[in-house]
Design a protein that fits this description.
The complex is a heterodimer of chains A (209) and B (115). Chain A contains three helices and twelve strands; from the N terminus they run E-E-E-E-H-E-E-H-E-E-H-E-E-E-E. Chain A is mainly beta and 209 residues long. The longest helix of chain B is centred in the N-terminal third of the chain and has 9 residues. The chains are: A mainly beta (209), B mainly beta (115). At the A-B interface, strand 1 and strand 2 of A face helix 1 of B. Chain A: One of its GO terms (cellular component) is cytosolic large ribosomal subunit.
């Protein structure tokens, strides 16, 4: 986890915009913030500096009593997503404080974006690891199989980390060096260049660099 | 309205005449050559219009020095200066790919309203 302040957002979707020179750029529109500070963590108490923020309002009837109590500190209702951001000095933040996109970012900034990728289920090595596979015809009997997974007498085992079929996706991925092309302060929307992990409506963490 | 649609609507262009497949159009395209910028006119028959929002495009076909040339132009690109309709064509389908197999007289398109 990067030790920088960030903001939580929700993916709205992708489109394209044109740059001033007229080149088409693929963009992802993200609804980011406002995030409410729910807790500040300090070296003295928790051993590290961080702030805990909430994003996306949630009905109290759908929350547990402890969660309601925890969110009550912020005074802005309950939240769907509660995440932590490492900061250098957590004392400058206070509980209940609102963090907006424009407080952290400006147009042209380079950021890192984390999100949970779409789950793809149990996949073979071609889709999961990009193996080549064999040819389909001309008597070939080797199509999409992974092939040999190691040597025989030595080491007599399969090496750790061997790329094999298995569950693909549904894991936290960080895309680095994403450019902010536009910020709409009034709508809490940020336009980022390129694609981002996860599905539409999925949670994204945008970290400053 | 969704913010995505709003951003798309802001970036879309609505300043073109309503041209259709079969129409002959003049497309004024801004071309950057090194440091210079000039406008090139591409005249031909619209053989396809791909509908959509920011991804919309259209394809113009012409015969240049005996060779068929097609250009697919993004509808909302700021590099397009303007689109002029030269003639309206009467065609019976929306994708005129059959023109690729025809040349000369056979590749003509009847003008709208002329019998």
């Amino acid at each position: 986890m990067p030790k920088t302040l960030g903001i939580l957002g929700k993916k709205v979707g992708m489109t394209r915009v044109y740059s001033a020179e007229g080149t088409a750029l693929p963009v992802t529109v993200v609804e980011a913030g406002p995030c409410i500070v729910l807790q500040t963590k300090s070296v003295a108490k928790e051993g590290y500096n961080a702030i805990q923020v909430g994003f996306g309002s949630k009905k109290e009837s759908r929350m547990t009593k402890p969660a309601i109590g925890h969110c009550a500190a912020g005074g802005k209702g309950g939240f769907y997503h509660i995440k932590e951001f490492r900061v250098n000095d957590s004392s400058q933040y206070e509980i209940g404080q609102e963090i907006n996109i424009s407080d952290i970012f400006k147009i042209g900034d380079i950021v890192d974006v984390s999100g949970i990728t779409k789950g793809r289920g149990f996949q073979g090595v071609i889709k999961r690891h990009g193996f080549k596979g064999g040819r389909a015809t001309h008597g070939s009997m080797f199509h999409r199989a992974p092939g040999s997974i190691g040597c025989s007498a030595w080491p007599s085992r399969v090496v750790k980390g061997k790329k094999m079929p298995g569950r693909m996706g549904n894991k936290l991925v960080t895309k680095k060096n994403v450019m902010i092309l536009d910020i709409r302060e009034d709508a809490n929307v940020v336009v980022l260049k390129g694609s981002l992990p996860g599905s539409i409506e999925g949670l994204l963490q945008i970290y400053s660099k | 309205m969704n913010m995505l649609e709003k951003i798309e609507r802001e970036n879309m262009r609505y300043d073109f005449p309503d041209f259709r497949p079969g129409d002959t159009v003049k497309v004024h395209i801004r071309i950057i050559e090194g440091a210079k910028e000039r406008v090139q006119i591409f005249q031909g028959v619209v053989i396809k219009r791909k509908r959509g929002t920011m991804g919309a495009s259209f394809t113009v076909r012409k015969i240049s020095n005996g060779v068929g040339v097609e250009k697919t132009i993004p509808m909302h690109s700021p590099r397009i200066e303007k689109v002029e309709i030269v003639t309206r064509g009467r065609v019976r389908r929306s994708r005129l790919f059959y023109l690729r197999d025809l040349r000369g007289k056979a590749a003509r398109i009847r003008e709208k309203g002329i019998r």
